[in-house]
Amino acid sequence: MLDMKRALDLKALAATCPVAPGDYQTARYALPVADGAVGLELVAPQGSGHVDATDEDVFVFVLDGQFSINAHSMVVGQGSKVTAGTAFDWSATPGTRVFAMRVREPHMSEPGVVRIDPTAAMSPSSPPPVEYLTGPTPACQSAPAWRSCDGQFYGGIWSATPYYRKKVPYVHDEFMYLLEGSVSFVNEAGEEQTFKAGDAFLICRGASCSWESRDVVKKVYVIFRPTAS
Q1: Domain (S)-ureidoglycine aminohydrolase cupin spans what residues (predicted)?
Q2: Which DSSP symbol is given to 130?
Q3: d(Cα 218, Cα 223) in Å, to the nearest integer?
Q4: DSSP SS3 for 14
Q5: Which domains does the chain have, with CATH numbers?
Q6: Which pLDDT tens digit goes with each residue over 90-108?
Q7: 3-class secondary-structure state, position 12
């Protein structure tokens, strides 16, 4: 049973994922979620196939191998959002493992595939709330790639100078892939986890952890933050 109160190392999970390679739509291992508002899955696609349009925005990130959507090919460390209403052909090389994050989109937008570009130009963005910090406030930059019509599902690139943040509860599900630097987390159980450039991990709603980065960090982020009902 996965401990969803800790950061999940997605590459390590994919290496032991109990699902046989096969069709992109069925060769899946679902991670436990707080509710049905988001789907979090490890996928072992192999071969090729077709996916009809659905009412879900889906972020896909390549952990191993190579995965293609139409003419858009992604290798390890690359991810894209398939917008709701987009039908596509897919192909995957043997040994491919993909992380998928699915969110229903009630307001349909223009179909297509939105790539997160790690080299996108960034602009200054808001730092963490000062009441969460111990020490200097970091200088942060970001380059948003998309934001859903209802504002709950969004992704892009973010960077920050070194800082320490106290333990805070996560009110969102967040995928992260470190492009530069390293980050250490300490969860409610006192367990410390450290991730470095090239690592992909997931922190889910309900987890509570600190953040410590001793050098500049740059990451890909994808967040589902449900609005209050």
Answers
A1: 150-221
A2: G
A3: 16
A4: helix
A5: 8-115 (2.60.120.10), 123-224 (2.60.120.10)
A6: 999 999 999 999 999 887 7
A7: helix
